[in-house]
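Most newcomers find our protein records easier to grasp once they have seen one. Sequence and backbone structure share a record, each on its own labelled line. To make this concrete, we reproduce a full record directly below:
***
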Amino acid sequence: MAQQEDVFKKLVSHCKEYGFVFPSSEIYDGLAAVYDYGQMGVELKNNLKKYWWDSMVLLHENVVGIDSAIFMHPTIWKASGHVDAFNDPLIDNKDSKKRYRADVLIEDQLAKYDDKINKEVEKAAKRFGEQFDETQFRATNPRVVENQAKRDALHTRFAQALNDSNLDELRQIILDEGIACPISGTRNWTDVRQFNLMFSTEMGSTSDGALKVYLRPETAQGIFVNYLNVQKTGRMKIPFGIAQIGKAFRNEIVARQFIFRMREFEQMEMQFFVRPGSELDWFAKWKEIRLKWHQALGLGQEKYRYHDHDKLAHYANAATDIEFLMPFGFKEVEGIHSRTDFDLSSHEQFSGKSIKYFDPELGESYTPYVIETSIGVDRMFLSVLAGSYREETLDSGETRVVLMLPPTLAPIKLAVLPLVKKDGLPEKARAILDDLKFEMKCQYDEKDSIGKRYRRQDAIGTPWCVTIDHQTLEDDTVTLRNRDTMEQERVAIGALRSFVQERVSMTALLKRI
């Protein structure tokens, strides 16, 4: 685990060094849990958003997009349950004065039991080799059985406490498990308290007449309050979906792990409206579609898994996360939820307006049920970087750091490099770049040795480098270098466009889903 934490630290510093992510307001010593995307980061982020958007609105003719405002009428958040129920259970350590989420402390404890079990299994697998029967070993090894029993008992108790919103029981679990503060090492805990995560501000000209409004903590409600507008103006028939990408804000007390949990973040959400009774079939379909979307990136099938929720939100009748293996363990990057008719019914009740759908096939009106797919852009960005980061030792003994990004997502698709800064090579290189820049993001670089320039491009994930040398002037061919294999081949300048485009096109990636 320590080795993985080292990789994570290197990844964070790599993001800053190469212009992917900067701490926000850094010249003023930064702002906790807020980050800015640099010149490479914004390209990667935009490519990710395009991949998601196109996979929703191009590949599904019954999914359309909107872009709703960040400020919304405050009663919307009352109707959605956020004013009363959007809370985190927090606990303070009296010695370190540090605040933690009680549920996260207990989840970390569950992970420790899992680690103990997995270590025993790994040791036995090495000892017994091909004869190893993992199922039998898990069922019979005394240490594994004991830890599994402890884990299961804790899991049952934890799930019950969450579902009952029993704050005293959450504290008691922390005490019974002997969970200590990572900083002070003591178990001197306060009571568990609820803390609302919404940012509030005032809208209006005078303090007396100002309306208290919230920065939206999710983008979904903007879709729900517009669902009938979209349905009527687009003449949409159920089932249909509405997609949206936008900023959301949560006053996270325990913000950590770089851009994994931030106070200002971006979401890509799609709400899919269905007939009541068909929602669990659609839930299963969207689970499958969304996992394929992730796996099409080629970061490794084994790095993804489903995680069914122990505690269902008050509005859900099914919920699953798609988790990715980050350097700090499997973590949620996307949630798929069957939200029933909670949101639409609630808005109907609080607004006093009918937002039912008339189904011409059934000849009746009803409140649709909703399947939600919700993905954090920033978490997705982190998972792609973590899944692409490599440190390699080459045959020469030299090391290189390379981001093996999916070519479609890479910030720079092609680096154009004149071998030397004379003999007409820079002019030739510029002509190639000017020809290709309309179709793909290219970068020109003539500084340092060609080897150093290759390393720089490896570090930002550029899939191809093209070198212009003296032979280019004779026969119009260039050296094309592959980032992942470092192999080089001569290619005619005229063939460059189609060669690179085929491999970086969004179409090719979408066809893999």
